[in-house]
Amino acid sequence: MKSEAPQCSGLEPVFGMSRRRFLQQFGSGIGSLALADLWARSSPSGDPFAASGMTHFAPRARRIVYLFQSGGPSQIDLFDPKPELNRRHGEELPESVRRGQRLTAMSGNQASLPMTGSPFRFDRYGQSGIELCELLPKTSALADDLCLIRSMYTEAINHGPGVTFLQTGSPFPGRPSMGAWLSYGLGTLNDNLPSFVVLVTKGKGGQPLVSRLWGSGFLPSKFQGVRFRSGDNPVLYLNNPAGIDAKGRRNLLARLRELHELQIAETGDTEIENRIAQYEMAFRMQMSIPEAYDFSNESPSVLESYGADVNKPGSFAANCLLARRLAERGVRFVQLYHPGWDQHGGLPGGLKRQCQETDGPSAALVQDLKMRGMLEDTLVIWGGEFGRTNYCQGKLTENNFGRDHHPKCFSLWMAGGGAKPGTIYGETDPFGYNVTRNGVHIHDFHATILHLMGLDHERLTFKYQGRQFRLTDVHGKIQYPIVQA
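The chain above was modelled as a monomer; its predicted structure follows.
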C-alpha cells in the first residue's frame, strides 16, 4: 500500500492544483456537508458500527415522515375541546388544577392567570367521531385514518430542551437523533439518497432549528441527517466547482479514496471509512437529487391537492410533496420542520395562518400515500414539542389572547404505519391542564415508534463512555392500544 503513495501526485495534472490546495477546497468543503449515505447494511469486513438491517420482529412501518410543528401548537384550540373551559372563560385558574406546577418566566410573574376557552368550533368527523377544530377541514376529512394522542407530556418547558427531547430522547444536547437511531438500526432502503433527510419550511423564522436536532451524536457520522434546501443547490457544496466536470469529480474521489485508505491502514480509524462513504454518496446524489426535486411528472390533480404553495420551493406544501417523493425513492426517515406555532400573543390570528399553511398539505400527504398503497407501511407523525396553557399569557381581551408553554399535556396525531386508525388515546382534565388517563411520555412515544418499525427499544443500543445508550434512555413503555392489530 505505501509504495502506491506517489500515485497521488497525479492529482496535480488532473486538477492543476497542489495536493494541499485540493484538500482545502474539496476535502473540507464537501466533508462539512454531513452527506450521510447512511449505509448500515451488514459488513463483510466486520465493521462494528454497521447494523444488520434486520428487525427484531415483523415491522408495521418501513419509513417515517415526521411533520414537526416547531413552537408548540395549541392542543386546546386544535385537538382537545374543553366545553367546561369555555364555560369558565375569564375565571382565575384554580390552584387545585395547577397543583403548584412551575410556569415560565413569561407568565409566572402575572398577578392573574385567567382561564381562556377556545374561540373555534369543534365538530365530530368520520365514523370514529373524532372531534377536531374547524381550522383543520382537510385533516378532519381523514379522521378515520388518524390516531390522535391527547395525553402526551414532557418535562421540558422551553423550546430548546423541548424540541431536543422530542428529537433525541433527551432534553440535553449531544444525543443521537431519532432518525440517526433508525438509520443505525435498520440501514438504508436505497443507494442514491441518504436514509435520513431533513426539510425546513423556508422563510418562517420562529425558534432556531440547529443541526444537532438531526445529528448523529455519539453514533458514527454517517447516520446523521442531511438537510435539503430549496433552490438550485439543495445540498451545500454538492455541485461541481467551476471547471470540474463529472469525470474530473470521479477522478478526484478515486484519488481521495486512495489517500483515505492509506490513512486507514496507518490509524485504523473507522470514521475515515464513513467519510469515504459520504463522498461516494455525494457523487451519486448529483444525479438523484435533481430528479427527486423535479415535480414535472406529477399529475395536475396531485399538485392541486397539496395547494397553491406547492410550486413555491421550500414551502410546507412543496416539502410535503417532496417528502412523498423521497419516501418513494427509499428515504427511510424524512423530517419536516415547520416553525411559527409559538403564539404567546395574537393566537386567534396566528393559529389561523399556521393552519392555512399546514392543514391542506398535511392531509394531502396522507391521502397521496394512501392512494399509492404506501400509507400502510409509512408512519406519518404530526405534532410539536409541547402544548399551550389553558390560561391567557398577558392581557385577555374580547378578541385576542396568547397562551404560554405547557408541558403537562399536549396532542399529536399519527397515520399509517401500523398506528391504529380512527382512535383517540388518552384524556386530559376538563380544563385541559393535566393528563387524567393513559399518559404518554416522550420515552413511551419513542418506544412505540421503534416498535412499529420492528425494533425493540431496549435492544437498540450503542456503547459509549462505558455504558449502553438507547433512544429511550432507561425508560419507555410501548403503548399497545394505539398499535393496529
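The CA atoms of residues 169 and 455 lie 16 Å apart.
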